[in-house]
User: Fold these one by one.
Assistant:
Number 1:
Amino acid sequence: MKPIQLFDPASSTFTYVLFDQSTRDALIIDPVDDQIERDLATLREYGLKLVWTVETHAHADHITSAGKLAELTGAKTAAPFGCGIGTAGVQLQHADTLSFGGESLRALHTPGHTAGSMSFVWREHVFTGDTLLINGCGRTDFQSGSAADLYRSLTQVLFALPDATTVWPGHDYQGRSHSTIGQEKATNARVAGKSEADFVALMDALELPKPRRIDEAVPANLTSGIRHDADGALLMQPRATQGGYAGDVSPQLAWQWMQAGQAVLVDVRTDAEREWVGFVPGAVPVAWKQWPGMAMNPQFDDAVRQAAAGGNKLVLLCRSGVRSIAAAKRATELGLEAYNILEGFEGDPDAQAHRGRRGGWRHHGLPWRQN
Ligand SMILES: N[C@@H](CCC(=O)N[C@@H](CS)C(=O)NCC(=O)O)C(=O)O
Ligand SMILES: [Fe+2]
């Protein structure tokens, strides 16, 4: 049984529809907003009921139609846990499965193109998103990408699948449609026969132009392509404060700024707190207790240099959003555009009482790691 493969020429993106032949329950991978009519027509033509929309990552080159499809068809939305797509109903972890009829799709965490990127296995097929492309791979120069992580995802996760597995990529820029694990293992120009060091050097030297729609696409994709939601204003705009620092931002907005390379995240918790509870990949650790003398602190100096060099904002994170305000004020005194991240890493227990859910970085489906 094969997936239905659909192509969006404007972004060279593949969308896939998988379905159970007897129940007609269907799942769609990486749907594109401009192609929603085509996709709805495809579902009608095959007599399918859409039960899942699934993203391989938060795309930088097109906007997803997942939110709209969910509204129109009643499908549930799923996205990788580490992508910060807070609106997705299911935040997928490695090895999770999604069922549609009697069929099931298995998630593999394959970081590298972005930190949260996943691939999905269905029967003898793998949908690789932008992790593995035909005779290529996704770039690693934005959205917390990492060439070293990508090397391991390719060689240890995807190339561990049977050679006969059909590879269905997220894009192809040269008119090809699919490949196999065996073929890519043997001939992929970026990775076949290469050491991790060779691969990292090659990826670091690519210097690709940035995707045309990245500034518009990433923020939209963090809300499943839908901009209005309950927290809309708070989510996507900084909130002005009484003074002393530039403003308050939601964890989602802070993450969006980080992904777009517009902000440096400084974590002011202690090393012990971070090790115990978890940390945000890419954050600069400068514990609050070091701040009085902070202009002398080499880690802080690095963060400041980075921020100042790129005209970047500083976004400050602590446990519950108290120390980060003090740090934002101190950073403002030092001449930086500094914002406090509301409700910190763990969320404010009062917010839980008021809204019935705990806020904070780790309760919004944003990327974080333990150790
Ligand atoms: N020209 C495209 C950019 C394409 C692009 O950068 N694609 C990303 C995937 S989101 C990639 O990883 N490309 C790999 C490559 O070009 O080798 C655009 O402006 O949208
Ligand atoms: Fe991508």
Number 2:
Amino acid sequence: MKIRAHLEALPPYASIEPFEVLSARLGREPSQIVKLDANENPYGILPAVRKALAEMDFPHIYPDPESRALRKSLSKFTDVDEEYLLAGSGADELLDLLMRVFLEPGECILSCPPTFGMYPFDAELNAVRCIEVPRKADFSLDMSSIRNAVDEFKPKLLFIASPNNPDGSLIEPAVMDELLSLPLLVVLDEAYIEFAGENLGASLSRIREVPQRENLVVLRTFSKWAGLAGLRVGYGAFPKWLMPILWKSKQPYNVNVAASVAAQSALANVGELAKVVGLLKAERTKLLVELQNIPYLKPYSTQSNFILCQVTGVDAAQLKTQLAEEYGVFIRYFNKPGLRDHIRISVGRPQDTTVLLEAFRKI
Ligand SMILES: Cc1ncc(COP(=O)(O)O)c(C=O)c1O
């Protein structure tokens, strides 16, 4: 039996190793591992969320396909009417859903690397071309090349993250306005917006504009700021005209009951979560200064919960391996153009910073 031809050639997604696999491989207890490689929230879930999960009423019943209760809470949190909101099994599911809904095999999307690896990955999965317009050396967008690529290839969708992963930079409002004037649907990925600016990124987010525009989608997630990466829950705000087709095309039970309960509880305790985000932002400031003092690292300023560093005089891939094997510290290395001499470090707790810095100083 033949599988679909484009899938035969598909390289596997290079994801990070699960915690228990790591700890078994290295012979270290999970508590002896400092995991700074996937931008998760090291403080874990709030006690209130743990309690809500323990007391969950109906795990034996299929979830609400429309995630009504969650969308109601999200509407209060985002100030966007429920009719524009759709929840997913992580923002990842919504990226894939958008590609499935819009693109015929052979059509194209636009992405601006270095950025999140799922955009080209989902494109390949959907037999779609990913046109890549690299960012400039300072990670800002190359607007004239973007305009040229739009003219030449006519991509239907642009996937763009702000703050961007892996450098943590925000898109300037004027640049975002320019992107929105292009003849395509802009999918703005705000997975890390809660770490930007003040007040969980409220004034920097563009989510409240979605109802006023025809060509803006904003995606968000509970994986990072809310510590729910393992439960898989994200959401998006979409133009009204797009909602009926999204409802028809998604898996009916895409957000499971535990994810929904946890996300609602997180939103009911947003003040507590804001304190955790505050701790991470304070640690980010401290870590940035400390990294500047490591002679072989050149950290970039960031609006997210990670710091990208250029590595000089030391091999970045080797540095990652050495940190893991000798010190139990996990950071991210990307074997990709523009990033081969870089590492990305998630911001952890003060004790994580201590172990990380000690290791850097010994290397
Ligand atoms: C830019 C960006 N978007 C989306 C995601 C995925 O979010 P989720 O865990 O909700 O699928 C990530 C996770 O690393 C990310 O970095």
